[in-house]
Amino acid sequence: MAFLKCIKCGATYPIEEVRYRCDCGELLEVVQELESISVSKELFDSRLGTLSPPYNSGVWRYKELILDIDNKYILSRPEGNTPVYYSPKICAYVGHPNIRLKHEGENPTGSFKDRGMTSGITAARFVGAEVVACASTGNTSASMAAYAAMAGMRAVVFIPEGKIAFGKLAQAIAYGARVVEIEGDFDDAMALVQEVTNQMNIYLLNSINPFRIEGQKAIGIEAIQQSGWEVPDWFVLPGGNLGNSSALGKALYELRELGIIEKIPRIAVIQAEGANPFYRYFTGGYTKFQPVKAETLATAIKIGNPVSWKKLEKVIKWTRGTVEEVTEQEIVDAKAIVDSSGIGAEPASCATVAGIKKLVEKGVIKGDESVIGILTGNLLKDPDIVINYHKEALQGLRSTYANKPVKIKPTIEEVKRVVKL
Ligand SMILES: *Cc1c(COP(=O)(O)O)cnc(C)c1O
Fold first, then answer.
1. pTM, whole model, 2 decimals?
2. pLDDT tens track for 347-394
3. Ligand 1 pocket test: which of 82, 241, 276 has the largest number of ligand atoms within 8 Å of its C-beta?
4. Does residue 93 form part of some domain?
5. Is the peptide bond before 405 cis (omega within 30 degrees of 0)?
6. Residue 243 beta carbon below 6 angstroms from any ligand 1 atom
7. Would the CB of 242 count as within 6 Å of ligand 1?
Protein backbone atom coordinates (compact mmCIF):
# COMPACT_ATOMS: atom_id res chain seq x y z
CA MET A 1 0.00 0.00 0.00
CA ALA A 2 1.11 3.55 -0.69
CA PHE A 3 1.87 6.04 2.07
CA LEU A 4 2.36 9.79 2.47
CA LYS A 5 5.83 11.23 2.86
CA CYS A 6 7.06 14.75 3.55
CA ILE A 7 9.13 16.09 0.66
CA LYS A 8 11.51 17.77 3.10
CA CYS A 9 11.93 15.97 6.42
CA GLY A 10 10.83 12.54 5.20
CA ALA A 11 8.22 11.94 7.91
CA THR A 12 5.61 9.42 6.82
CA TYR A 13 1.88 9.10 7.41
CA PRO A 14 -0.72 6.51 6.42
CA ILE A 15 -2.98 7.40 3.48
CA GLU A 16 -6.05 6.95 5.69
CA GLU A 17 -5.05 10.06 7.61
CA VAL A 18 -6.62 13.32 6.40
CA ARG A 19 -3.75 15.74 6.10
CA TYR A 20 -2.32 17.93 3.36
CA ARG A 21 0.96 18.96 4.94
CA CYS A 22 3.59 17.42 7.15
CA ASP A 23 3.79 18.45 10.81
CA CYS A 24 6.85 20.44 9.71
CA GLY A 25 4.64 22.44 7.34
CA GLU A 26 6.03 21.08 4.08
CA LEU A 27 4.13 19.36 1.25
CA LEU A 28 3.45 15.65 1.21
CA GLU A 29 3.68 13.24 -1.65
CA VAL A 30 2.23 9.80 -2.16
CA VAL A 31 4.98 7.20 -2.20
CA GLN A 32 4.09 4.20 -4.33
CA GLU A 33 5.89 1.10 -3.14
CA LEU A 34 7.26 0.30 -6.56
CA GLU A 35 9.03 -2.91 -5.52
CA SER A 36 5.70 -4.48 -4.70
CA ILE A 37 3.83 -3.18 -7.76
CA SER A 38 3.63 -5.58 -10.61
CA VAL A 39 2.62 -3.83 -13.83
CA SER A 40 3.82 -3.90 -17.40
CA LYS A 41 3.26 -2.33 -20.79
CA GLU A 42 1.40 -5.50 -21.74
CA LEU A 43 -0.96 -5.18 -18.77
CA PHE A 44 -1.72 -1.54 -19.60
CA ASP A 45 -2.12 -2.37 -23.30
CA SER A 46 -4.50 -5.23 -22.46
CA ARG A 47 -6.83 -2.69 -20.86
CA LEU A 48 -6.94 -0.44 -23.94
CA GLY A 49 -10.37 -0.23 -25.45
CA THR A 50 -12.05 -2.01 -22.57
CA LEU A 51 -15.59 -0.95 -21.74
CA SER A 52 -15.42 -1.97 -18.10
CA PRO A 53 -14.81 0.49 -15.33
CA PRO A 54 -12.50 1.52 -13.90
CA TYR A 55 -9.99 0.44 -16.58
CA ASN A 56 -11.89 2.25 -19.34
CA SER A 57 -10.58 5.46 -17.78
CA GLY A 58 -7.32 6.98 -18.99
CA VAL A 59 -6.43 7.43 -15.34
CA TRP A 60 -7.55 4.15 -13.78
CA ARG A 61 -6.05 2.10 -16.60
CA TYR A 62 -2.91 2.66 -14.52
CA LYS A 63 -4.70 2.04 -11.24
CA GLU A 64 -1.76 0.30 -9.55
CA LEU A 65 0.25 3.50 -10.01
CA ILE A 66 -2.55 5.91 -9.05
CA LEU A 67 -4.32 4.65 -5.96
CA ASP A 68 -4.62 0.94 -5.52
CA ILE A 69 -7.76 0.74 -3.44
CA ASP A 70 -11.09 -1.07 -3.59
CA ASN A 71 -12.95 -0.17 -6.79
CA LYS A 72 -16.04 0.74 -4.78
CA TYR A 73 -14.44 4.07 -3.84
CA ILE A 74 -13.56 5.05 -7.39
CA LEU A 75 -15.60 7.80 -9.02
CA SER A 76 -14.74 7.92 -12.72
CA ARG A 77 -16.58 9.55 -15.64
CA PRO A 78 -14.40 8.03 -17.20
CA GLU A 79 -11.73 10.66 -17.89
CA GLY A 80 -8.57 10.73 -19.96
CA ASN A 81 -8.21 8.82 -23.22
CA THR A 82 -7.61 12.24 -24.75
CA PRO A 83 -6.46 12.55 -28.36
CA VAL A 84 -3.01 13.44 -29.61
CA TYR A 85 -3.10 15.82 -32.56
CA TYR A 86 -0.63 16.54 -35.29
CA SER A 87 -1.15 19.80 -37.17
CA PRO A 88 1.01 20.90 -40.11
CA LYS A 89 -0.20 24.45 -39.51
CA ILE A 90 1.00 24.48 -35.91
CA CYS A 91 4.28 22.80 -36.85
CA ALA A 92 4.87 25.51 -39.47
CA TYR A 93 4.06 28.21 -36.92
CA VAL A 94 6.54 26.94 -34.33
CA GLY A 95 9.14 26.03 -36.96
CA HIS A 96 9.46 22.37 -35.98
CA PRO A 97 8.33 19.28 -37.91
CA ASN A 98 7.58 16.93 -35.06
CA ILE A 99 5.14 18.45 -32.58
CA ARG A 100 2.26 16.43 -31.23
CA LEU A 101 -0.34 17.99 -28.97
CA LYS A 102 -2.17 15.98 -26.36
CA HIS A 103 -5.48 17.67 -25.77
CA GLU A 104 -6.43 17.51 -22.12
CA GLY A 105 -9.17 20.03 -22.84
CA GLU A 106 -11.14 17.10 -24.20
CA ASN A 107 -11.71 15.64 -20.75
CA PRO A 108 -15.27 15.46 -19.30
CA THR A 109 -15.32 19.00 -17.86
CA GLY A 110 -12.87 20.41 -20.38
CA SER A 111 -9.51 20.40 -18.64
CA PHE A 112 -6.83 18.06 -17.31
CA LYS A 113 -8.11 18.82 -13.81
CA ASP A 114 -10.51 15.88 -14.23
CA ARG A 115 -7.54 13.51 -14.00
CA GLY A 116 -6.56 14.80 -10.60
CA MET A 117 -10.16 15.13 -9.58
CA THR A 118 -11.09 11.50 -10.14
CA SER A 119 -8.24 10.45 -7.86
CA GLY A 120 -8.91 13.32 -5.43
CA ILE A 121 -12.63 12.61 -5.07
CA THR A 122 -11.85 8.92 -4.77
CA ALA A 123 -9.48 9.69 -1.89
CA ALA A 124 -12.18 11.91 -0.38
CA ARG A 125 -14.64 8.99 -0.48
CA PHE A 126 -12.01 6.68 0.95
CA VAL A 127 -11.64 8.91 4.05
CA GLY A 128 -15.40 9.46 4.29
CA ALA A 129 -15.47 13.18 3.42
CA GLU A 130 -18.88 14.78 2.86
CA VAL A 131 -17.91 18.31 1.90
CA VAL A 132 -15.04 19.23 -0.43
CA ALA A 133 -13.47 22.60 -1.19
CA CYS A 134 -10.88 24.21 -3.42
CA ALA A 135 -9.47 27.56 -4.39
CA SER A 136 -9.44 27.91 -8.11
CA THR A 137 -8.63 30.02 -11.11
CA GLY A 138 -11.59 28.21 -12.64
CA ASN A 139 -10.93 24.75 -13.96
CA THR A 140 -10.39 23.05 -10.62
CA SER A 141 -13.70 24.44 -9.40
CA ALA A 142 -15.51 23.34 -12.57
CA SER A 143 -14.09 19.85 -12.25
CA MET A 144 -14.57 19.52 -8.50
CA ALA A 145 -18.15 20.79 -8.70
CA ALA A 146 -18.99 18.15 -11.29
CA TYR A 147 -17.31 15.23 -9.54
CA ALA A 148 -18.71 16.24 -6.15
CA ALA A 149 -22.22 16.40 -7.61
CA MET A 150 -21.82 12.90 -9.02
CA ALA A 151 -20.49 11.64 -5.71
CA GLY A 152 -23.37 13.25 -3.82
CA MET A 153 -21.00 15.50 -1.90
CA ARG A 154 -21.30 19.19 -1.20
CA ALA A 155 -18.75 21.41 -2.92
CA VAL A 156 -17.45 24.83 -1.91
CA VAL A 157 -15.27 26.75 -4.35
CA PHE A 158 -13.29 29.89 -3.61
CA ILE A 159 -12.57 31.99 -6.65
CA PRO A 160 -10.91 35.37 -7.14
CA GLU A 161 -13.71 37.86 -7.79
CA GLY A 162 -14.32 38.87 -11.38
CA LYS A 163 -11.14 37.17 -12.57
CA ILE A 164 -12.16 33.78 -13.82
CA ALA A 165 -13.10 32.81 -17.34
CA PHE A 166 -16.82 32.77 -18.05
CA GLY A 167 -17.12 29.14 -19.09
CA LYS A 168 -15.47 27.96 -15.88
CA LEU A 169 -17.61 30.09 -13.61
CA ALA A 170 -20.69 28.93 -15.47
CA GLN A 171 -19.72 25.30 -14.90
CA ALA A 172 -19.11 25.67 -11.17
CA ILE A 173 -22.49 27.37 -10.71
CA ALA A 174 -24.32 24.95 -12.99
CA TYR A 175 -22.93 21.84 -11.30
CA GLY A 176 -24.32 23.16 -8.03
CA ALA A 177 -21.24 24.11 -6.03
CA ARG A 178 -21.42 26.81 -3.38
CA VAL A 179 -19.46 29.50 -5.25
CA VAL A 180 -17.68 31.97 -3.00
CA GLU A 181 -16.07 34.93 -4.72
CA ILE A 182 -13.44 36.47 -2.55
CA GLU A 183 -12.03 39.96 -2.68
CA GLY A 184 -8.51 39.08 -3.70
CA ASP A 185 -6.56 37.01 -6.18
CA PHE A 186 -5.98 33.26 -6.49
CA ASP A 187 -3.14 33.34 -3.99
CA ASP A 188 -5.45 34.90 -1.38
CA ALA A 189 -8.09 32.28 -2.15
CA MET A 190 -5.50 29.52 -1.78
CA ALA A 191 -4.40 30.79 1.63
CA LEU A 192 -8.02 31.06 2.77
CA VAL A 193 -9.07 27.59 1.67
CA GLN A 194 -6.18 26.02 3.58
CA GLU A 195 -7.37 27.77 6.73
CA VAL A 196 -10.97 26.74 6.04
CA THR A 197 -10.13 23.08 5.54
CA ASN A 198 -7.89 23.01 8.61
CA GLN A 199 -10.58 24.47 10.86
CA MET A 200 -13.79 23.10 9.38
CA ASN A 201 -14.68 19.53 8.53
CA ILE A 202 -14.12 20.07 4.82
CA TYR A 203 -11.82 18.07 2.56
CA LEU A 204 -9.32 20.05 0.49
CA LEU A 205 -9.09 19.23 -3.20
CA ASN A 206 -6.43 21.61 -4.47
CA SER A 207 -3.29 20.12 -5.97
CA ILE A 208 -1.64 20.56 -2.57
CA ASN A 209 -3.64 17.38 -1.92
CA PRO A 210 -1.14 14.72 -2.98
CA PHE A 211 -3.83 12.42 -4.39
CA ARG A 212 -4.63 15.02 -7.05
CA ILE A 213 -1.06 14.71 -8.27
CA GLU A 214 -1.37 10.93 -8.53
CA GLY A 215 -4.25 11.18 -11.01
CA GLN A 216 -2.51 13.84 -13.05
CA LYS A 217 0.46 11.53 -13.53
CA ALA A 218 -1.71 9.65 -16.01
CA ILE A 219 -1.31 12.40 -18.64
CA GLY A 220 2.32 11.49 -19.13
CA ILE A 221 1.78 7.76 -18.88
CA GLU A 222 -1.04 7.84 -21.40
CA ALA A 223 0.93 10.07 -23.78
CA ILE A 224 3.78 7.57 -23.78
CA GLN A 225 1.44 4.61 -24.19
CA GLN A 226 -0.21 6.37 -27.13
CA SER A 227 3.24 6.65 -28.70
CA GLY A 228 3.64 2.87 -28.49
CA TRP A 229 5.77 3.33 -25.34
CA GLU A 230 8.23 5.46 -27.32
CA VAL A 231 9.39 8.26 -25.09
CA PRO A 232 9.50 11.73 -26.67
CA ASP A 233 12.56 13.94 -26.28
CA TRP A 234 10.46 16.71 -24.77
CA PHE A 235 7.26 17.30 -22.86
CA VAL A 236 6.12 20.91 -22.87
CA LEU A 237 3.34 22.24 -20.65
CA PRO A 238 2.18 25.44 -18.95
CA GLY A 239 2.93 26.07 -15.27
CA GLY A 240 0.69 27.87 -12.78
CA ASN A 241 0.49 26.25 -9.38
CA LEU A 242 3.05 23.75 -10.77
CA GLY A 243 1.09 20.67 -9.72
CA ASN A 244 0.71 19.29 -13.20
CA SER A 245 4.37 19.60 -14.17
CA SER A 246 5.35 18.03 -10.86
CA ALA A 247 2.93 15.18 -11.53
CA LEU A 248 4.45 14.59 -14.96
CA GLY A 249 7.91 14.37 -13.42
CA LYS A 250 6.69 11.91 -10.80
CA ALA A 251 5.10 9.76 -13.48
CA LEU A 252 8.32 9.62 -15.49
CA TYR A 253 10.33 8.79 -12.41
CA GLU A 254 8.07 5.90 -11.49
CA LEU A 255 7.89 4.54 -15.04
CA ARG A 256 11.66 4.51 -15.16
CA GLU A 257 12.03 2.85 -11.76
CA LEU A 258 9.59 0.20 -12.92
CA GLY A 259 11.56 -0.37 -16.11
CA ILE A 260 8.64 0.60 -18.32
CA ILE A 261 10.70 3.37 -19.89
CA GLU A 262 14.45 3.85 -20.08
CA LYS A 263 14.93 7.30 -21.50
CA ILE A 264 14.01 10.33 -19.41
CA PRO A 265 12.30 12.98 -21.53
CA ARG A 266 13.12 16.61 -20.80
CA ILE A 267 10.33 18.74 -19.37
CA ALA A 268 9.85 22.37 -20.42
CA VAL A 269 7.50 24.40 -18.24
CA ILE A 270 6.09 27.57 -19.75
CA GLN A 271 4.96 30.50 -17.62
CA ALA A 272 3.29 33.76 -18.57
CA GLU A 273 5.65 36.70 -18.30
CA GLY A 274 3.36 38.37 -15.75
CA ALA A 275 3.09 35.24 -13.58
CA ASN A 276 6.61 33.86 -13.77
CA PRO A 277 7.96 33.21 -10.26
CA PHE A 278 9.36 29.80 -11.18
CA TYR A 279 10.93 31.12 -14.37
CA ARG A 280 12.75 33.75 -12.30
CA TYR A 281 13.80 31.16 -9.76
CA PHE A 282 15.13 28.89 -12.52
CA THR A 283 17.00 31.60 -14.41
CA GLY A 284 18.36 32.92 -11.11
CA GLY A 285 20.04 29.57 -10.48
CA TYR A 286 17.55 28.46 -7.79
CA THR A 287 18.91 30.96 -5.27
CA LYS A 288 15.74 32.30 -3.71
CA PHE A 289 12.14 31.56 -4.56
CA GLN A 290 10.12 34.74 -4.60
CA PRO A 291 6.37 34.98 -5.20
CA VAL A 292 5.15 37.68 -7.58
CA LYS A 293 1.88 39.57 -8.01
CA ALA A 294 0.43 37.65 -10.95
CA GLU A 295 -1.00 39.34 -14.02
CA THR A 296 -1.92 37.55 -17.25
CA LEU A 297 -4.96 37.02 -19.43
CA ALA A 298 -4.21 33.30 -19.27
CA THR A 299 -6.17 33.07 -16.01
CA ALA A 300 -5.48 29.35 -15.48
CA ILE A 301 -1.81 30.17 -14.88
CA LYS A 302 -2.33 33.50 -13.15
CA ILE A 303 -0.66 32.36 -9.95
CA GLY A 304 2.06 34.31 -8.17
CA ASN A 305 2.78 31.99 -5.28
CA PRO A 306 2.66 28.43 -6.63
CA VAL A 307 2.23 25.69 -4.06
CA SER A 308 4.34 23.02 -5.74
CA TRP A 309 7.54 24.89 -6.61
CA LYS A 310 9.75 22.64 -4.49
CA LYS A 311 8.39 19.53 -6.16
CA LEU A 312 8.97 21.05 -9.57
CA GLU A 313 12.53 22.06 -8.75
CA LYS A 314 13.40 18.39 -8.22
CA VAL A 315 11.63 17.46 -11.45
CA ILE A 316 13.37 20.08 -13.59
CA LYS A 317 16.74 19.03 -12.21
CA TRP A 318 16.08 15.32 -12.63
CA THR A 319 14.78 15.66 -16.21
CA ARG A 320 17.40 18.25 -17.25
CA GLY A 321 14.37 20.36 -17.96
CA THR A 322 13.94 24.02 -18.68
CA VAL A 323 11.59 26.87 -17.91
CA GLU A 324 10.54 29.56 -20.38
CA GLU A 325 8.31 32.59 -20.22
CA VAL A 326 6.00 33.96 -22.92
CA THR A 327 4.36 37.34 -23.41
CA GLU A 328 0.65 38.04 -23.61
CA GLN A 329 1.06 38.77 -27.33
CA GLU A 330 2.80 35.44 -27.88
CA ILE A 331 0.02 33.62 -26.01
CA VAL A 332 -2.86 35.16 -27.95
CA ASP A 333 -1.16 34.75 -31.33
CA ALA A 334 -0.31 31.11 -30.60
CA LYS A 335 -3.90 30.66 -29.53
CA ALA A 336 -5.20 32.09 -32.80
CA ILE A 337 -3.09 29.51 -34.63
CA VAL A 338 -4.10 26.60 -32.39
CA ASP A 339 -7.75 27.62 -32.72
CA SER A 340 -7.70 28.15 -36.48
CA SER A 341 -5.96 24.79 -36.95
CA GLY A 342 -9.30 23.34 -35.87
CA ILE A 343 -7.94 22.01 -32.59
CA GLY A 344 -8.61 24.96 -30.29
CA ALA A 345 -7.65 25.47 -26.67
CA GLU A 346 -7.87 28.03 -23.89
CA PRO A 347 -5.18 30.72 -23.44
CA ALA A 348 -3.06 28.96 -20.79
CA SER A 349 -2.84 25.88 -23.01
CA CYS A 350 -1.54 27.96 -25.85
CA ALA A 351 1.35 29.12 -23.70
CA THR A 352 2.58 25.60 -24.49
CA VAL A 353 2.69 26.33 -28.22
CA ALA A 354 4.10 29.82 -27.73
CA GLY A 355 6.75 28.28 -25.49
CA ILE A 356 7.65 25.57 -28.01
CA LYS A 357 8.08 28.26 -30.68
CA LYS A 358 10.42 30.21 -28.43
CA LEU A 359 12.47 27.17 -27.42
CA VAL A 360 12.79 26.11 -31.06
CA GLU A 361 13.94 29.62 -32.04
CA LYS A 362 16.49 29.60 -29.24
CA GLY A 363 17.77 26.20 -30.37
CA VAL A 364 16.94 24.58 -27.03
CA ILE A 365 14.51 22.21 -28.73
CA LYS A 366 16.34 20.81 -31.76
CA GLY A 367 14.74 20.12 -35.12
CA ASP A 368 15.33 16.37 -34.90
CA GLU A 369 13.86 16.01 -31.42
CA SER A 370 10.32 14.80 -30.80
CA VAL A 371 7.98 16.95 -28.75
CA ILE A 372 4.69 16.31 -26.99
CA GLY A 373 2.96 19.51 -25.92
CA ILE A 374 0.08 19.44 -23.48
CA LEU A 375 -3.02 21.49 -24.27
CA THR A 376 -4.52 21.80 -20.82
CA GLY A 377 -7.98 23.28 -21.35
CA ASN A 378 -10.82 23.62 -23.84
CA LEU A 379 -11.38 26.49 -26.28
CA LEU A 380 -14.90 27.06 -24.90
CA LYS A 381 -13.66 27.81 -21.41
CA ASP A 382 -12.84 31.39 -22.25
CA PRO A 383 -15.00 32.73 -25.09
CA ASP A 384 -14.38 36.37 -24.15
CA ILE A 385 -10.74 36.22 -25.13
CA VAL A 386 -11.62 34.64 -28.47
CA ILE A 387 -14.25 37.21 -29.38
CA ASN A 388 -12.20 40.17 -28.20
CA TYR A 389 -9.09 39.02 -30.03
CA HIS A 390 -10.94 38.62 -33.31
CA LYS A 391 -12.79 41.91 -32.80
CA GLU A 392 -9.39 43.56 -32.23
CA ALA A 393 -10.56 44.58 -28.79
CA LEU A 394 -7.88 43.14 -26.52
CA GLN A 395 -6.36 46.09 -24.69
CA GLY A 396 -2.75 46.71 -25.57
CA LEU A 397 -2.48 43.66 -27.84
CA ARG A 398 -2.39 43.21 -31.60
CA SER A 399 -4.83 40.83 -33.25
CA THR A 400 -2.29 39.46 -35.69
CA TYR A 401 -4.54 36.70 -37.03
CA ALA A 402 -7.93 38.35 -36.58
CA ASN A 403 -10.91 36.68 -38.22
CA LYS A 404 -13.53 39.37 -37.97
CA PRO A 405 -17.17 38.46 -38.58
CA VAL A 406 -18.86 40.66 -41.19
CA LYS A 407 -22.44 41.92 -41.31
CA ILE A 408 -24.29 42.18 -44.61
CA LYS A 409 -27.73 42.74 -46.14
CA PRO A 410 -29.26 39.37 -47.12
CA THR A 411 -28.53 39.56 -50.86
CA ILE A 412 -26.45 37.37 -53.14
CA GLU A 413 -24.43 40.40 -54.30
CA GLU A 414 -23.44 41.10 -50.76
CA VAL A 415 -22.44 37.46 -50.21
CA LYS A 416 -20.30 37.61 -53.36
CA ARG A 417 -18.67 40.75 -52.02
CA VAL A 418 -17.64 39.19 -48.69
CA VAL A 419 -17.03 35.56 -49.69
CA LYS A 420 -14.30 35.62 -52.32
CA LEU A 421 -13.84 32.38 -54.23
C1 LIG B 1 -4.71 24.35 -13.87
C2 LIG B 1 -4.34 24.70 -15.24
C3 LIG B 1 -3.03 25.00 -15.62
C4 LIG B 1 -1.91 25.06 -14.64
O5 LIG B 1 -1.60 23.84 -14.04
P6 LIG B 1 -0.80 23.81 -12.65
O7 LIG B 1 -0.86 22.43 -12.19
O8 LIG B 1 -1.54 24.77 -11.75
O9 LIG B 1 0.56 24.32 -12.95
C10 LIG B 1 -2.76 25.26 -16.94
N11 LIG B 1 -3.75 25.27 -17.86
C12 LIG B 1 -5.02 25.01 -17.53
C13 LIG B 1 -6.06 25.07 -18.59
C14 LIG B 1 -5.37 24.72 -16.23
O15 LIG B 1 -6.64 24.47 -15.93
1. 0.97
2. 999 999 999 999 999 999 999 999 999 999 999 999 999 999 999 999
3. 241
4. yes
5. no
6. yes
7. yes
